[in-house]
Amino acid sequence: MKNAYLYFIDRFLPRRISYRLALSYLLILCLFVIVVVRSVTQVQDISRRSQEFARNDLQKLLQVQNLALDIEGSTSALVLIFNATQDKRKPAYDAVDAKKKHIDQLIQKLGAESDDEVQTLCLQRLDVTHQEFRQSYLNLFDEIELDNPDGAKRVFETQVAPARQAFLTESGILLDLAKKRIQQRQDEEQSDLARLKLQVIAVSIFAVLCGIGLAFITQSSVVQPLTMLEKSALQIAAGNYTSKVPPTRTTEVAQVGRALNTMADAIALREAEIEQLAYYDPLSNLPNRILLLKTFEQQSLHEHAMLLMDIARLKIVNETLGFGTGDTLIVEVSQRLKLATEALAQNHHAFLAKFSGGQFALLCAAPDGGLIKDVVADLLNNINHQLSTPVQCGNHSVDANLVFGIALANNETRDLTGLIRNAEVALYAAKENTLMSAWYSDAQEASRLGHLSLLSDLRSAVQNNELQMWLQPKIHLSDLSCYGFEALVRWQHPQRGFISPAEFVPFAERTGYINRVTDWMLKQAVQTLASWRDSYPQLSIAVNVSTNDLRDQHFPERVRQLIDQYQVNPANLQLELTESGIMENPGNAIPLLQALRSIGIGLSIDDFGTGHSSLAYLQKLPVSELKIDRSFVINIDQHPSTQKLVKTIVEMGHGLNLHVIAEGIETLAEREALVALGCDSMQGYFASKPLHGDALQNWLNTLPKA
Predict the structure, then answer these.
(1) What is the pTM of this model?
(2) Which helix (H) or strand (E) holds 284?
(3) What is the DSSP string of 299-312?
(4) Domain 289-440: what homologous superfamily?
(5) Which residues pair with 587 in a beta bridge?
(6) pLDDT tens digit string along 147-192?
(7) Rounded distance between C-alpha atoms, residue 398 and residue 385, angstroms
(8) What are the pLDDT digits (tens) for 66-90?
(9) Which of 64, 224, 290, 652 has its CA 20 to 30 A from that of 327?
């Protein structure tokens, strides 16, 4: 039965829902039109017949009733003739004749309009009885005129009364026929109305049945497929993209189903792409940090180790050979790391992941009964073996070396994030100490935590003026006169005591906080110069500037504002810069130095000879002084080769119109050697240690005042 129904739907109904709905609405509309047209037609027909009934049958009934009244009236006129005198009979005769004439006219009119045979025969008999009645009352009139009452009475009884009665009888029959005809017409109209009512009810019932049938067809061909589409859409929303919408016989639903299937496939593909981007490194196709953490989120880390590896000199490769070469190096290293871990996959569990830049992570576990340190040693040997061959990047052959930070899980390792953090601490320690690998230890953690707290304390030290500016004199070798000082920062921590600049200055440079320290030192130096304006106007103060300061394009403006604020001579302020700081980005550093020199500030290259500046850049630098590094000065009197090198530096500086000063002079022999080599000035413990407070003031008191 169901198959037959589906065959009917598929065979005789259109496949498109819009056509089916249009057909359904059209069918119901046609039924409605049929009901309305049929009802209107029937009502019009009944109205027409009612008008005909009012126009014909009722008029005929009135005429028949008038006829009966005329007959009775003529009989009453006969009674008046009996009692009338001779002079009054003439009007009575005229009245009877008028009645007779009117009755004849009515009978003729009814006969002409009659379409009923029975009525026609009745009218003929009525006409006959009327003629007989007329003859009888004419005979009666003759007797009355002969003044024969007895004869008139006899004629009335024998002729007029029977003729009158026959005439009245036929008139009554005609009236009954008219009434029956009207009743018949009324019955016919009632029957027509009842039939119209039945027709309307029948068509309405048929329309309702058609509506029910169409609703069922719509439900089976539209609602059910839409329900199926809804279920499929909910499954897609739940993430089940394998469930497909089955084909249907309805065009629109089939199109929506195909669209849903296409959408599910597209979403599945995009989710796969998103998952690939979210959990895998796009360059090496290795799992990333997120997937590593997700995979081992709930797993125990007992006897696990984390190897954090970073490609050495990747930054140099990118800068010199381009980022394309660097990407090729990363891809090749990832492939070799895969080979190194796969070689031990049978005996060890290892998960290789790619972090940012050139950093890789390798989580490994020891087999049952094995030691995790042995696993790490095997992995390191395998990795180093795989990386022993240089990587061919286009036309360049690049050595691929990794720096390792290794951390072992212990009872205090709570999760993988902590293990990765420990490996990062070890990796940083390896880089800081220029080692190929370093194992995490509690001492590294303590140092790391100490540095973190040191940064917070350094912020407080700058804000609360806990730092101190110490000054070391600069002395002319020709006359041993002092012409200036170098400003050295010192930190007297309220709890930790004295903290060496060698500890907190590099840390401040790595964290970017050295700019605040430089600003503090500049402000102290300018304030000191302002206080010496009247007593020691010939003295200058040199402040060391870090590489971070040379990256700040607003640095010259800040220096200018300080000088303007305290109204000091810009020539009395000097900035000392390292070769490495300038050569990091000479394209940006040289314009910045020129801006500082335009203010009138003196610029000095500190630690000259230890960097990698070229003479081509040196002659472009707007500096006024060279400081020979202490490594060239130690025991210079005992090393002729060093003397030749220093003499070359001095002559080169003089050739560029630069003032040459040597730092770190501690003995008389060193000073005399520098004097012989033509050096201009010196700085070091031989002249004076760095001074602060009263010691500085006492030293200043020995100088000649302006």
Answers:
(1) 0.49
(2) none
(3) S--TTEEEEEEEET
(4) Reverse transcriptase/Diguanylate cyclase domain (3.30.70.270)
(5) none
(6) 777 777 787 778 877 877 777 787 777 777 777 877 777 777 788 7
(7) 16
(8) 666 666 666 666 665 656 666 666 6
(9) 290
